[in-house]
Every structure is written in C-alpha cells, then in structure tokens.
Amino acid sequence: MIVIQPHAEGATLAVRAQPGAKKNAILGEHAGALKVAVTAPPEDGRANAAIVEVLKDALAVKRSQLELLSGAANRNKVFLVRDCTPDDLAARVREQIG
Please, which domain of life does this record's source organism belong to (predicted)? Predict the structure, then answer.
C-alpha cells in the first residue's frame, strides 16, 4: 500500500526514486512508496526535476501543484500534491499502477 497522507495544502505521496534508468516510468509500488524511474542522473537535482515531470504527467496535475517536501538527496522522497485530496490522489495512483 502506497503511503498517502493528508496535508493542509492537499496530500503527500511517498516516492522511491530510481535515477539513471533506461526510460522514465512509474514502476509500481516499493516498500510503501510509488516507484518512479527516470533517465536523469542523481546530480544537481536533475533526477528530482525529472520525477516531478513524470508525476505531473501521470497524475494529471500542474507542475505548480507538486513540491518535494523531503528526500532531495535520498531515493526515498515525499512529495506534496496541492489541491488534491488523499482519496483523489490514491485513485490517480491506482490508475497508474493498475
């Protein structure tokens, strides 16, 4: 079960990053987090920026709605999705991982 928590501005989503992958994709669930693979290397925040792009497209939200709350230099990250209820976010995540 992917960890999605309520937040004052929306909902938070646990993400497990896989930088340096062959393609950008959502790979499913890993230890309670949404596993996101990106081709960008984990240097100078490039992988984090690529993860934001993947999440933006997959969850059908605006870039301005996504914010990295924790884990900037770690594979385990927490993103804030503004203006999205935990139930709505969970439904969008389920659509992506089947």
Answer: Bacteria
Radius of gyration of the chain (CA): 12
The secondary structure of residue 63, as a DSSP letter, is G
- 58: part of which helix (H) or strand (E)? helix 46-59
Q: Any bridge partners for residue 6, and if so which? A: 11
What is the tally of structural domains in the chain?
1
Structural domain range at position 36 = 4-74
Q: What is the domain-level CATH number for residue 38? A: 3.30.1200.10
Task: Give domain status of residue 21, yes or no.
Answer: yes
Q: Which of 38, 39, 32, 28 is nearest to 14 (CA)?
A: 32
* Cβ density class 45-72: b for 16+ within 10 Å, e for less: eebbebbbebbbebbebeeebbebeebe
Query: Per residue in 37-68, pLDDT tens?
Result: 999 999 999 999 999 999 999 999 999 999 99
